[in-house]
# Entry
Amino acid sequence: MLELRNVTRTIAGVDHIRDVSLTLRHGSLNVLLGPTLSGKTSLMRIMAGLDVPTAGSVWFDGVDVTGVPVRRRNVAMVYQQFINYPSMTVYENIASPLRVAGADDATIKREVGRAAELLKLTPYLARTPLNLSGGQQQRTALARAIVKNASLVLLDEPLANLDYKLREELREELPKIFAAAGTIFVYATTEPHEALLLGGNTATLSEGRITQFGPTIEVFRRPNDLVTARTFADPPLNTIVLRKSGSSFKLDGGVNLPVPADLAGIADDEYTIGFQPHHLSLSASRPEAVPIRAKVTASEITGSESFVHLDFADVRWVMLAHGIHSFEPDQEIEVFLDPRHIMIFDSSGRSVSARDRMAA
# Structure
């Protein structure tokens, strides 16, 4: 078990990590999700022992390892910017952790072959990294992490340089490999959909602090606050500030959005309403869906889906609609919002409800 206890990392007076406490268990997949500069890499470097926290401590299986250097820990780390030994063949690059560990030739051959097959590297084992594509070099670095059989594996946006098909395969296979070995698997990404595809647990990061940690689908469906909800939305979360009056939230144009029944007792006040782009639609899928007239500012067709950018009461929204939909700029259209899917936040940005919501 890896424990971070009130960890802070300060550089030149700036907190890169702020008072982070986190517990990760053996055999678990854990995603660090946040935008660039949110602290993901800084946190991983502390986990690995590459950096020492300014305050707080790091524990592994009940032992305080704060300050213990990475070379004395059983850790593997792979960055988006791949690192390989340029003078070694792909085979020897992958085999290097096994040779350091004193493995016999038969074990090395078996484990290198298994990792090379998984990562589609078998035809390239005799090549040196300079004779590989960027994606092949990244796969070599991943293969080396797999054969190391480390207790802690840290992958920092490792699939960004790979083609789509291999990326999808590895998202499915890598968690199984490390879970079967009882490894603590930590995967950093800026992409919410990647966190959802990987599953496991997710920690959302913002400005060096963890805003929420738990099962990935739970964090996505039930964010504790507006910062977490925005972190876990791509395209960006749609929001609007509304006033509750009685049983409704009042929108411009005489539109009333019903307050969910289990929240009917909250005070009449201003709240921020949030909802995902795919919770706006061009037709009413249910009788409860509320029609809203909005102005199109732009539409983007991505193949089987369309992103329609909208202006409602000088607030910008995005609708993710299935199919091909082309609208003219400034065209007024009717869209529908199902009130079952709205998230409600108070003036401090905290969720006002922990109730179970509909599946995303």
Notes: The two ends are 31 Å apart (CA to CA). Residues 354-360 have pLDDT under 50 and may be disordered. The helical segments are 40-48, 90-100, 105-118, 134-148, 164-180, 192-198, 216-221, 226-231. The chain is about 25% helix and 35% strand.
